[in-house]
């Protein structure tokens, strides 16, 4: 059940981050899930000292994961286009 939750929450987080960063038209559902999961890991490392992956799903952990996904998309946009956008 845990892997299904990671995929669903990762997809939602990746989708929201892509809307915020205006890259939604360029990504599919698979890339949204990947961005959401990797972004959650990045957010957990940067903002929660690495303990977000062991924390239950709350509003705060969701926002930290969203922030990590936005940071990931900003880095990808910077490398790809030369601007954050």
Overview in brief:
Helices cover 72% and strands 0% of the residues. The protein is mainly α and 85 residues long. The protein has one domain.
Record keyword descriptors for this entry.
85 residues; mainly alpha; 0% strand
Could you name the ranges where pLDDT drops below 50 across 5 or more consecutive residues? none
Strand count, sense and barrel status of the largest sheet are: none
Percent of residues in helices comes to: over 70%
Distance between the termini: 37 Å
Element order: H for helix, E for strand:
HHH
Structural class per helix/strand content?
Answer: mainly alpha
Quickly count the helices: 3
Structure report:
This protein is 72% helix and 0% strand. The chain has 85 residues and is an all-alpha fold. α1 (2-20) crosses α2 (29-47) and α1 packs across α3 (59-81). The termini are far apart. The mean pLDDT is 80.
Write the layout of secondary structure elements.
Blueprint: H1 2-20, H2 29-47, H3 59-81
Helix pairs in contact: 1-2, 1-3, 2-3
